[in-house]
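Wed. Picked up where I left off yesterday with DUF3772 domain-containing protein. The coffee machine is broken again, so keeping this brief.
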Amino acid sequence: MQKFLRMPLLLALLSCLMMTPALSQADEATGQSAAAQPVKVNASTALPALQKRLDQLKQQVSAAKTDKKFTGLNDGAQKLAEDADKLAVALAPQLEEVQAQLDVLGPAPAAGTLTETPQVVSQRNKLNNSKTLLTTQIEQTKGIATGARNLSSQISGMRRDALKTQIALNTGSVLGGNFWSPLITPNDDDAARFDDFGSQVHDAWTQAWSEDWRAGTGIYLLLALVIGLFGRKLLDRPMNWILPRWLPHGRFRRSFLACFTTLSTTFTLGISVQLLCYIFTRLPDTSQWVNEFAEQLVELTYFSAVIAGLGIALLSNSHPSWRLPGIADPLAKTLGSFPILLASFIFLFGIIEQLNNLVGASIAATLFGNGLAALLVALNCLIAPVRVNRMRRKMRADGEQTEARSTIAGLIHLLISLTAFVILIALLIGYIPLARFVTFELLWIGLVVSSLYLLIHFWVDLCESVFSDTTHSGKILKSTLSVNDRHLSLAATLFSAIGKTALLLMAAVALLNGTFGTTTPLELLSKIVDMWGGKGLESLNIIPAHAVNAVLCLVVGWYVLRSAKRWLDNDFLPKTMMDRGMRASLVTLFTNVGYVLIIMLTLSSLGIEWNKLAWIVSALSVGIGFGLQEIVKNFISGLILLTERPVKVGDLISISGVEGDIRRINVRATEIQLSDKSTVIVPNSQLISQNVRNATMGNAQGVATIVLTFPLDIDPEQVRTLLLDAYNLHESILENPPPSVSFKELGPTGIVLSVTGYVNSPRMVGGTRSDLLYEILKMLRAAEISLSQTQTMVLEQPLAKIAAAEDEA
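Structure written out below (tokens, as returned):
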């Protein structure tokens, strides 16, 4: 029994003896590790500090606006990643030390075997807990480092986007070494990213020519090459045969050919690149980068192809006689290569910019691409006018005739040259974001204006062709609707005006909202407003972007209104049956309503709400009550005159002793021209509140009345017949109602006769009456009839009576 009791004790003693060298080995390993890493990092405090720094950087990034702020945050993110890597490196030896101790202790014994002492079990549990904690801390540290690097890439992308709007940022001149450093000494990260993208493209290309995809790749590649190289020429040949045979004679042929050339160039190049990209995008293993780049490449191709197509169509070197703008043939041939070069520059450096954004290239690489693109576009825009001017001088020296230059063409020429000069200056002094912004704004505005010019010509020519009385469509409309040529001309004018107005509005919207991947840089205007320091405008919600839009809305609205007024006054209304006064009233009313709408749209663009203008309405009410009531009264009276039309432009009126023709009804007053060509300004309220004689209202006739006095011994019937003959013989006197003679008075001085006749207009009364007086006097003298003379009574006194009277006095 005692033997059995001693056995466990013996076993425990043996196990203790066996564990003694193991513990000594563990102590030696621990000592060696401590000697290798004498300083241990307290990860329990360092790790939360790193996480806090990461969270703070994320919060600051969301509120960052300037390049300086982005640079500081990017440096902070990179420093955080370095600190996290250092912490992970510092924790790795501690994990190795714990693992070494666990290896010395060995695995825990299986159940049913020898048991371990509590000290060994406790030590193994502590080591396992330390291992788990260290592993978790290292993983968290690596996660923080990865998050910091991702944040740094995100900041770089945001900084690249911010460079598009921060035009006041000086990034270095294009003549400096920093600008060319991405080409001479590229960044290692950029090289790695581009190599990675290149390897993905290479893998996709290799897969495309694999056995399963080889046939389709060859077909798509062949189609892309044929369409891209020969597609436009193949479409031009049948179109050149169709145009003279199917389309009517006129200007519509040339505008249709220009539109067709633009569309054929755009779609052939676009479809060709789409087929090339489809070679890669149809593959199942194509990477996301390659797919995104293919989509962006197709969009860039269409944009560049539109520019090239517009240039080829407007220059029309293949069909000089069908050229839309009035450009001489030598000048058009001189400019023939510039649209293609410009489109090529945009396509090439658009690819570079898209690649930089796609792979997350450095700021230096982005600035290099933007600056080089702006430089080449500016040089292209400067060299083209120089060559044109040189060719003009040569043509004048040779005695050849140049094109008739208009003011608008000269203004466009000057603006393009000045803009290109501004781009070059910005690049030289180091404002690459400014140069990029101006470059792409120039391209966008040029694209919109060129498209507007082409589409307006196409639409106007189409309307004239459809509604012309010489075309097949016009003859069908005349026979179907039973209209005459005047109605067809009126319809052509109306529909062309509607189309031009719609195109102008779409162009205005495109200019306001569309910028080739850019946003309007309004930080400078915001700083100016902030320098004023007042918060009075905050209640009206006026911001610089809205202010610029309001100015553009005001300018475009004023131009559209002026063009519409000129069109109504000169083109549309004269073709109607309205009289001149009605046309003038409609034009004036249309102009007034247009000004009101423009003001309302401008205020709306400013972001001003009408409920925020209560103080203005209150001030106006006080002003109206005191000093503005006459102006308001005249304004309302002017609206009544234009709508009710008691008097209209061209009427002959008489008011307060003033008689003349109405020449213009303005908002406040009416202009009346007298017979001596002088003008009297009459407030509109007087035409409403006073008695006005309108001599021409309702097609009123004029009355030519002459009153004559004859002696008592004349024959009244003879004189009556003579007067009626004089009136009847005059061509201006109307037959109905016929002229008449009235016996007005019989007195001691003679017989008073009044002869009356009617003419078509009161304006003819004066001239007709003068002619009749000449004729009547001639006829009276021929008939030996005299007019009655005024009798004078003279009292005479004898000389004797006069002398006697003097003596008595």
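Quick read: Residues 182 and 214 are 37 Å apart (CA to CA).
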